[in-house]
Amino acid sequence: MMKRSVLISLTCLLAACGGGESAQDSAAKQSQIEPVNLVVNKPVPDNHNAQAYAIALIGNSHAAGLVPYLQDTIEHYVPEKPVSVEALGFGFTDDLYNNAGVHGKLREGGWTHLIIQGQKYSQSGTVLYSTEATQQWIALAKDLGITPILFPEHPQRGRTQEAEYIMGIHQGIANKQASCIAPIGLAWDAAIQHMPNVPFHTADGNHGAPSGLLLSSLIFSEIITAERVDTGPISIIPNTILGIEQQGALSQIASQVLVEQPACD
Length: 265
What we know:
Elements: E1 6-7, H1 10-14, H2 23-29, E2 53-59, H3 61-77, E3 83-90, H4 93-97, H5 100-108, E4 113-116, H6 132-143, E5 147-150, H7 162-176, E6 180-181, H8 184-194, H9 210-225, H10 244-260
Parallel strand pairs: 1-3, 2-3, 2-4, 4-5, 5-6
Helix pairs in contact: 3-9, 7-8, 8-9, 8-10, 9-10
């Protein structure tokens, strides 16, 4: 098995959700990026049969926190393939699209998949933010032969309508620029309902606890590899504090949600 290749910014992990570089550092890296033609809506490249998986993520602390869990989960289900997972940049999709450094990493990295998180949305539902930058990321990934996967983030604790609201925003994006969509929030809603005694959030009610991060990783793993995560003998995924029964339940929830809400058209 390939040695883990996980690059995470400690600064981002300790920062708030919108995190990222300082304004001065960010400004130094900014340049005018040529926009991708959104009139052309290419089909989504299918890289699930790649001989090795090279997975890039962009987004805020939700994306960064997922990196080690996703690495472990994919390695668990496809141990015969080398896997690398890296967060390329931290922030919202519109800010990141103008970051030349992030663009360079994406163009030069030989990636098979790009997970896109950080679309701005209004928690009150009263403000509509542009989705053009997120569409640009999708189109750029497809131009490079990379499978784009939208990451509608999980709902905050107690916000029972938030998952469907955020999912709807991302479905609207994919209707304009074809992309896979990971039904993360819908899986979290199902898991919270069926496993009420398991904490899916950290104490802040926003970020994912180990159980929540594992659930999100199971969803992405099945999308990326096309290997159902609820089949075969249940065994403990390395480096988690969750018991075998909990992991088995989460894998069943993940696969069932993907049956009901397929990620890729």
